[in-house]
Amino acid sequence: MVTNSLPCILTWKSILLISFGLSTSYYFYSIVKKPLIIISNGKLKDFIHNHIDTLKRPYYPTPWALNGHLQTVFRAVLEKSPELGCHREIIVTTAGIQLAIDWLIDDQSDDDHDKPIVLYVPGIGGKARSNCLVEARSLGYRTAIFCIRGSDGLPLAKPSQLPRLGDWTDLATIIDHIHQKYPRSMINVIGISLGGMIICNYLAETEPSQNYVHAACIVSTPFDMKVTQLSLETWFNTRMYNVYIAEFMINYLKCYSFHSHESSFTENGHSLPFNFEDVKKCITFSQFDQSVILPLFGYPDLTTYYKLASPGIRMDKIKTPLVCINAIDDPFSPIAGIPIDKFNQSPDIALILTRYGGHVGFIEKLWPTKTTYADKETNKPPNYDYILEKTMKL
């Protein structure tokens, strides 16, 4: 019986070995690819091709996460936010709105006023994805986090101070302040998701004489909010992401003291054009915008609001060197919303496009570590040397 069972065992072993071999071959032949670099001819393109070694190697996505949703979710699950000791600097705008800069404590020495600065602009989750600042600090940069109005404990006095998608005016205030404080330092910005939208709009709309940013890098930025809306309102994405975004925004609204009770909001003694009982029923971010943002700020419809917030329509106005990292399978920033034609026509903006990566995912290896492909693109030399130093020479 032992003799008769041996061929069967060998057969199953052979099947497993063949399956493993075929899977491995498929992974390395069809999955592992170099990113697509989309940019018009110019100094930025030449420098990327000649000096950024990380872009010359393929991206090895985690084999069991070959899906935008798995990339997105497992990055959020596996990533541990670093303990960042920060010194908070409060800036009050002319309208009385409190903003803040969280300076990493190790970078508070004033002995080198020429030290280049990295300013991190977060997405909807605030500081949750600020691992790149640890790397920036280790490379010798003065590093800081832009605290968006109403986030990280900053108070809002009234509903009309709520942040809006793509609004870049607060970032302009922060950058102006940093420039006045460190006039000889280069200011470089890194943005994640919605933070990238803010950066793009700032770079596009700020007059050159008032733009103090030397270089920028953004990751998983939605370029067209209408396309993002349509993607996130599919049956699966609504239940996977949208309902939680809506819940976050509702809780965000609830946590401020400018409402006397849950069903009635007032400002300067006047009733506001929304009812909190209706707001609590929202299950998508567009329903929240429809219920709160549109009547509060006077937008005629969602199409108008999302068009004005989207950076894709104004990318050709950007003249500051900008590197954008996106994945084709990003559920928040689908390929249909990326203005590839504008990247093809501009020598100042580059799109680094990977097949896999999800939304701020880009996890690698069989068991991903906290350092992702996108982290390496934004944080490792010589890419940092270019994005955060050598752009002055372009």
Give a topology summary.
Blueprint: H1 2-31, E1 36-38, H2 43-51, H3 68-78, E2 86-92, E3 98-104, E4 117-121, H4 131-138, E5 142-147, H5 169-181, E6 187-192, H6 194-205, E7 213-219, H7 225-232, H8 235-254, E8 259-261, E9 264-267, E10 270-271, H9 276-279, H10 285-297, H11 302-309, E11 322-327, H12 340-345, E12 349-354, H13 373-379, H14 383-388
GO molecular function: acetylesterase activity; monoacylglycerol lipase activity
Active site: 193 (charge relay system), 330 (charge relay system), 359 (charge relay system)
Organism: Trichoplax adhaerens (Trichoplax reptans)
What is the H/E string? Answer: HEHHEEEHEHEHEHHEEEHHHEHEHH
CATH class descriptor name of the largest domain: Alpha Beta
- CATH H-level superfamily title of the largest domain: Alpha/Beta hydrolase fold, catalytic domain
- Global Rg: 23 Å
Protein name: AB hydrolase-1 domain-containing protein
Keywords: Hydrolase, Membrane, Serine esterase, Transmembrane, Transmembrane helix
Family: Belongs to the AB hydrolase superfamily. AB hydrolase 4 family.
Active site: 193 (charge relay system), 330 (charge relay system), 359 (charge relay system)
